[in-house]
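As promised in the previous annual report, we have extended the structural survey to additional targets. Below is the entry for Type III pantothenate kinase.
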Amino acid sequence: MLLAIDVGNSNTVFGLYKLGTEGAPAVLVADWRMTTPSGQTTDEFGSTLRNLFALRGLDMSVVDGIAVSSVVPPLDWMLRQVSELYFKVKPLFIEPGVKTGLPVLTDNPSEVGADRIVNCVAAFERFGGPTIVVDMGTATTFDVISKKGEFLGGAIAPGLGISADALFSRAARLPRIEVKKPAKIIGTGTVDNIQIGLYYGYIGLVDGILERMIAEMGPETKTVATGGLARLIAGGSKHLKTVDEMLTLTGLRIVYERHLERNRKRST
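The corresponding structure token record, generated without further manual editing, is:
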């Protein structure tokens, strides 16, 4: 089985896949989301993973492949150690030099985050192009895929959580609140005033960028949202119609399967 690991600034998501054989599709057996570890040792993180597997009735020995997208370089060494010590597997990191099947037509392709690459791989596989992927995490990224399946570039904006934290930290009298869809558009209390501003303000940011990108790419452009806040924001957006919370893991699986296929061809 393949363990796909998406390491973000705030959260790390794992997906355990039973890969397809003889034309059968791959199956997501289990998935987990945890706070991205900070300061944990290899053994601490390995023990956490062992407990997560055990809670699902799974043994770590079922894993014979690991694919990683990481935007937190200081954790990469620890993840390599965990993979080799606890799973006895050499991990595949999505990094410059790894063939993904996605041409990257930016000024400096090595600057593009691994999560953005695998998101685009999965989105093009599912929707074709042109497509825009909006990944809502610590930052919100907009990634544009051409009709031919090329990564053209995109945009990066502060995430909704960062925006909320900035407001609360700079305005001492404003209380910290849960960010959710407000019940009305004209607030009558401090809490709903803040909720309205954050929720609809952020939808305005997302839709404003998408509107301009779609105008440039053409009206046939498809959009897909992913990330922890995708469902919340897509629910009020006029441009985001599809949500795929497993898009990054799917992209990791696809890249790994392509990697296996290339290795098989080399050995024959």
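The chain has two domains: 2-93, 109-249. The mean pLDDT is 93. These points will be discussed at the next consortium meeting with the crystallography subgroup.
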